[in-house]
Protein: DBH-like monooxygenase protein 1
Organism: Orchesella cincta
Amino acid sequence: MKLGFVVLAAAALILSTVVESLPFVEHNGNATTWKILTRHVLSSAHSSQHCSFHKSPVQGVKQHIFKENYMKSEYVHHVDLFRCVAPEGKSNPEVFDPFLREEGYSCTNKELPLEHCQYYCFWSCPIAPPENRFPENAGHAINEGEYLFMVIHYENPSELTDVKVESGVEFTFSHDDKEFDTAFLKVGRYISYKNLIPPSSKNFVVPHTCTSECTEILPQPIQIFGVTFHAHDSAMEIKLEHLRNGKSLNVIAHDKHYSPGEPFKFKKLEEQVKFLPGDELRVDCTYDTSSAGGKAMIGGNSLESEMCIAFIEYYPRTMKLSACGTSTDGSAVKKFFGIEDFNSEDAINPIVSSPGYLNGKSFTEVVQSIEWNEENRAQFQELMKNGPKEKYCSVGHHFE
């Protein structure tokens, strides 16, 4: 599968120049704090990203993280971290040491070993998770010789130049005899024209399902203990549901008044959910684009686009599945709008190549040229809910 770093080469995400990257370690009794700090000079791009590799300071026995801290900046939307694992026949130092340079990288650099850094392991954002986030018998492990790949997402809405930004993350960990290691499962899909909310739409639902075909590869049942929802400014409501054999067992989490001002807000479940291989997870995001100035919203990283994601935290950790979801079938979406073909099917906002009278128009230009009414909006909503789906499941997190 193609990584989204190629997709993100769009002009709106041209990366700024990195000045300095300064990770350091502090010891306090049995606890160790690992701080990864980046000083960065923004370009005038509205949205940009900075990528860097970092080696775990852990020595000897496995440690468990018990505290996370986000280094705030008005220009940083959030930070993602991915665990890197060398391919069979090679060692971690052999693959990742050459990329441990202080100045970091453009996230679109094709030389980066991104295909080996797809296991989503943490995010940081302005709302810190509670210190009692983990169950007593489980924690997020960090090991000796482990490598992390960090992506900082910047937002510069005023498109200022030469803005110096200092940000990053820090983790505090200790040797703790936890019975289980925790992990993340990302449900949903976001960077695609197929995840479309029409202009001036209210209560428009975009569903995503982690299907049984994906979860059957889990080696054993898992215990879900926490959920974090994420979407952008048009989102009003997000719901996560647990299904088995096509029937709903329960609603795991439901934010009826989702606030984009609180992205990545963690919800610890009052009762853990036992999830079996072959079960399904469905996340429904409800949107209101009536305040978007007549713009259609498609899936993307920028705050000017939309997302629909549920991050599931569970134990015991497995390396078998990290991300799953569905999108409405691309052929069905194109047919609805009278589009025959695009110049590039992988583009976030692809350019139409045929039919001739639409040639050269972007997908959103076609969508916005339609006179939307109650009837065609209801027809498109039916397509998004019950139309043919494209399914995906990943042995690592798709950084899309």
